[in-house]
């Protein structure tokens, strides 16, 4: 790169200072692999295990002025979580999903560290007791895995069922939290 | 049947930036020498301000050069004797132009931009006209006037 790291950093900082950035993103190392994290002025808006095409998704949802920038507060809270020192996140969130999904995610956020719940129980809590499958879809599309703990949602028989980041990661997160895992 | 134009989507800004930040800096170094870095940052801040108003993703490279040219012209008009930092550039494809490039420092701003964009970056006159805010004919005239001036300088030495 012809542009020096200092010049590059100065430009990015000036862009943020002038309020010209719709959404920032960064890649954060973690025990479950590199995480793609993104935030708007309002708060964290996206966490994902696979960064492919996510800059375009951010562009469509939050605005095209997408710029890579360190997200220190998100990185710090995630680090603390993975070190077992943080059981709840204090990050502001910017969630833009359909109303039903928003209801489900709001209930999901209340599932405590180290506990598990089921798709059916979550469905009942949003007043749609027969919508366990739709709740499963909401988990699959969770824009903020880890922070919104969809890994704590398991099948009614206790099986892990599924996870957008793969079952191995779900297992790792539950083990980290000391949740009782099915045999 | 009418041909359907495939509309090119606008990429997220990071992609646009990474695709063009280096060549825009090289271009500005040719025009402004040591003063290029401030102009470079101003170029991409202006691009960021205008980005939400883009209607399609076509000609984004030319658009970046357009903004850079305007920033450089403002700078050249304000401080008319820029320093050329003498950097050689492996991207230069035309040996004749490479030999003459140092002389562009002596040209008036419009001619200088037209010559550098045409011979250094191989942009066509339509794109150069956009950059200069003029017609294609005027861009062509500025480039050839610049080339004539360079030839006279070369003969004069």
Describe the protein in words.
- The complex is a heterodimer of chains A (183) and B (157).
- Chain A has 183 residues and is α/β, with parallel strands linked by helices.
- Chain A has helices spanning 5-17, 54-62, 72-82, 99-108, 119-125, 132-140, 167-177; strands spanning 23-28, 35-39, 44-48, 66-68, 117-118, 153-154.
- Chain A has a 4-stranded mixed β-sheet. Chain A has a two-stranded parallel sheet with strand order 5-6.
- In chain A, helix 5 (119-125) crosses helix 6.
- The termini of chain A are far apart.
- Chain B is mostly helical and 157 residues long.
- Chain B contains 7 helices and no strands.
- Chain B has helices at residues 13-32, 36-50, 60-78, 95-100, 109-120, 125-132, 136-156.
- The model of chain B is unreliable at 1-7 and 82-94 (pLDDT under 50).
- At the A-B interface, helix 1, helix 2 and strand 4 of A face helix 1 and helix 2 of B.
Q: How would you sum up this structure in a few lines?
A:
The complex is a heterodimer of chains A (183) and B (157). Chain A has 183 residues and is of the alpha/beta class.
Task: Summarize the SSE layout with pairings.
The complex is a heterodimer of chains A (183) and B (157).
Chain A: H1 5-17, E1 23-28, E2 35-39, E3 44-48, H2 54-62, E4 66-68, H3 72-82, H4 99-108, E5 117-118, H5 119-125, H6 132-140, E6 153-154, H7 167-177
Parallel strand pairs in A: 1-4, 5-6
Antiparallel strand pairs in A: 1-2, 2-3
Helix pairs in contact in A: 5-6
Chain B: H1 13-32, H2 36-50, H3 60-78, H4 95-100, H5 109-120, H6 125-132, H7 136-156
Q: State mean pLDDT of chain B (0 to 100 scale).
A: 82
The Cα radius of gyration of chain B reads 16 Å
- End-to-end C-alpha gap of chain B: 60 Å
Share of helix of chain B, binned: 55-70%
Keywords:
heterodimer; A: 183 residues; alpha/beta; four-stranded mixed β-sheet; two-stranded parallel ribbon; 6 strands; 13% strand; globular; B: 157 residues; mainly alpha; 7 helices
């Amino acid at each position: 790169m012809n542009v020096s790291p200092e010049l590059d950093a100065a430009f990015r900082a000036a862009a943020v200072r002038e309020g010209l950035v719709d959404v920032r993103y960064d890649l954060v190392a973690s025990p479950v692999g590199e995480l793609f994290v993104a935030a708007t002025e309002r708060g964290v808006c996206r966490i994902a295990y696979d960064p492919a095409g996510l800059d375009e998704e951010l562009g469509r949802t939050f605005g095209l002025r997408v710029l890579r920038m360190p997200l220190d507060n998100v990185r710090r809270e995630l680090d603390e979580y993975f070190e077992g020192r943080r059981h709840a996140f204090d990050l502001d969130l910017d969630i833009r999903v359909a109303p039903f999904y928003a209801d489900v995610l709001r209930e999901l956020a209340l599932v405590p560290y180290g506990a598990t719940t089921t798709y059916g129980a979550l469905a009942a809590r949003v007043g749609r007791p027969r919508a366990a499958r739709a709740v499963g879809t909401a988990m699959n599309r969770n824009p903020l895995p880890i922070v919104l703990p969809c890994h704590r949602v398991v099948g009614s028989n206790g099986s892990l069922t599924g996870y957008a980041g793969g079952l191995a990661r779900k297992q790792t997160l539950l083990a980290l939290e000391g949740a009782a895992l099915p045999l | 049947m009418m041909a359907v134009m495939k509309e090119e989507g606008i990429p997220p800004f990071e992609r646009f930036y990474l695709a063009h930040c280096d060549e825009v800096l090289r271009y500005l170094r040719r025009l402004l020498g040591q003063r290029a870095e401030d102009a470079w940052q101003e170029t991409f801040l202006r691009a960021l301000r205008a980005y939400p108003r883009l209607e399609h993703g076509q000609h984004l490279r030319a658009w970046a050069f357009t903004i850079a040219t305007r920033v450089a012209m403002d700078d050249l008009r304000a401080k008319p004797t820029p320093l050329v930092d003498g950097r050689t550039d492996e991207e230069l494809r035309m040996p004749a132009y490479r030999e003459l490039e140092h002389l562009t420092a002596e040209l008036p701003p419009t001619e200088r931009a037209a010559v550098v964009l045409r011979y250094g970056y191989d942009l066509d006159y339509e794109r150069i006209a956009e950059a200069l805010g003029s017609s294609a004919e005027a861009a062509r005239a500025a480039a050839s006037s610049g080339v004539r001036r360079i030839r006279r300088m070369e003969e004069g030495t």
